Amino acid sequence: MDRLPQTPAILVSAVNMLLRDGEFDSLEALCYNFDTTADELQTYLLRNGYRFDEDQQQFKAW
Fold first, then answer.
1. Strand, helix or coil for residue 3
2. How far apart are alpha carbons 34 and 3 in whole angstroms?
3. CA distance 59 to 36
4. What local confidence, expressed as pLDDT, does residue 21 receive?
5. 49 alpha carbon, distance to own chain's centre
6. 10 in helix, strand or coil?
7. Quick check: 1 pLDDT over 80?
8. pTM of the complete model
9. How far apart are CA 33 and CA 23, in angstroms?
10. Are 39 and 48 contacting, i.e. CB atoms less than 8 angstroms apart?
């Protein structure tokens, strides 16, 4: 995967998969790899109905 998907639901699925499968050890590391910041990603997904759960290291609908 060269870049993150733009569709919110697909983006959440991809990010959660990459974190769950251990490709990246944190949201910050994942975002750095894809040339964005965790704040930008969280803000975008929050506007689209997803919140990041720090304890479980995944985005969830809210």
1. coil
2. 6
3. 16
4. 97
5. 13
6. helix
7. no
8. 0.92
9. 11
10. no
